[in-house]
Design a protein that fits this description.
By secondary structure, this protein is an alpha+beta fold. It has nine helices and 17 strands. Helix 1 packs across helix 4 and helix 4 packs across helix 8.
């Protein structure tokens, strides 16, 4: 029998630093167990998926997301100390690049200028840029590798590009992107992220910040240009009566502790806790705010009407956002699982996972929590 998780156990903590055209990005991941093997080649491959998709701009031709490890590992295995990555930038001309004369509608440009009371738009855009997500993808891939030890998998799928659904096929999407590129325009879309293999009871309900559905949706909403996130039936649930919405509970010899569900309209989470079913998220991405043809703006120095200044950018980043969405969801899910299991080493986590009661029978459990103590 493994030891119970102590109160107040923490999940993962992470932070990133660096600018879009600075020397490098930095990512720090804390809270990993000791003994987790981290394959840098796999992480690098996961990061390059961001570039190996349609809709990318000129930077995709030279950016390599050069990854290096500077702390937290020995011989490819985590030490339990903070894991520190550097992600090199292929273009590091931050000190030479010109300022933007006219802010771009939809970007952080104007709001940042008003915040700083300074016309230096580049001082805002360099960090507000989606380039930051390269660093989060790196640590998210580490989260994915941790989840793999427990049979938990993350996947994504693009569902819509510029109003064109998946039923029209990839060629229709590529044609829409080509048309937008020729017109100097941009496109948004919709993608899904799914988690399979999670045990029930991961997350929390004691505090609002414990609720896993809120945390996963917030992770996706934190990505640049994401303007809507739903889980399960999401917004369509507003027109569905409760008798058709909620997932019935049934006897299932293959289910956790002999129980299962008749459906999964809740999207795999109830009351802030995983149900053991597939966790289903969808995110809406607005069109990128940097248009080659420009949008109406104002030259901040001259105080005259202008077109927004063009900054090298993509035409459509929905495919990329889906890849990054996998990473941030994997990171948040790994954090929740880490908090659920605790343990100092990966071996301790695995032992505790095996003791979660999958093969138990509910009828054998005590009726009262007071009778559950050692």
């Amino acid at each position: 029998m493994t030891q119970p998780l102590s109160p107040g156990a923490q999940g993962l903590r992470w932070t990133t630093g660096g600018e879009s055209h600075g020397p490098s990005l930095v990512a720090i991941l804390e809270g990993l167990p000791a003994g987790l093997r981290v394959d840098l080649e796999s992480i690098q491959a996961g990061m390059m998926r961001r570039w190996e998709v349609p809709g990318r701009g000129p930077r995709a031709k030279f950016e390599k997301d050069a990854l290096s490890m500077v702390g937290g590992m020995k011989r490819g295995v985590t030490l339990g100390s903070p894991l520190v990555f550097l992600v090199g930038n292929g273009d590091s001309r931050i000190d030479e690049l010109p300022n933007l004369a006219a802010p771009r509608p939809g970007h952080a440009d104007l709001a940042g200028v008003l915040r700083h009371r300074n016309r230096d738009i580049r001082a805002v855009l360099e960090r507000a840029s989606a380039r930051e997500t390269a660093a989060r993808t790196a640590v998210g891939e580490v989260g994915r590798s941790l989840l793999a030890h427990f049979g938990i998998q993350i996947s994504s799928q693009v569902l819509e590009i510029g109003g064109v659904g998946a039923d029209k096929g990839e060629d229709a999407w590529l044609e829409a992107v080509d048309q937008a590129r020729e017109a100097g325009d941009t496109l948004g879309g919709v993608f899904s992220v799914k988690i399979n293999g999670s045990p029930p009871g991961v997350g929390g309900y004691a505090q609002p910040t414990d609720r896993l559905d809120a945390r996963l949706m917030a992770a996706l909403a934190s990505l640049p240009a994401i303007k809507g996130v739903e889980i399960g039936l999401g917004f369509s649930g507003s027109s569905t009566p409760g008798s058709d919405y909620h997932d019935g509970i049934c006897i299932d010899s293959e289910g956790w502790a002999g129980l299962g569900r008749t459906s999964n309209r809740c999207g795999g989470i109830e009351g802030g806790l995983t149900t053991g079913g597939e966790i289903q998220l969808q995110a809406v991405m607005k069109p990128i705010s940097t248009l080659r043809k420009g949008l109406p703006s104002v030259d901040l120095k001259e105080g005259t009407d202008s077109r927004a200044t063009y900054e090298r950018s993509d035409v459509c980043a929905v495919w990329t956002a889906a890849v990054v969405g996998e990473a941030v969801v994997a990171l948040e899910m790994a954090s929740a699982l880490r908090a659920r299991l605790g343990g100092v080493t990966l071996a301790e986590m695995v032992a505790r996972f095996k003791d979660l009661g999958k093969d138990d029978q509910v009828a054998d459990w005590p009726d009262d929590l007071a009778d559950s103590g050692a």
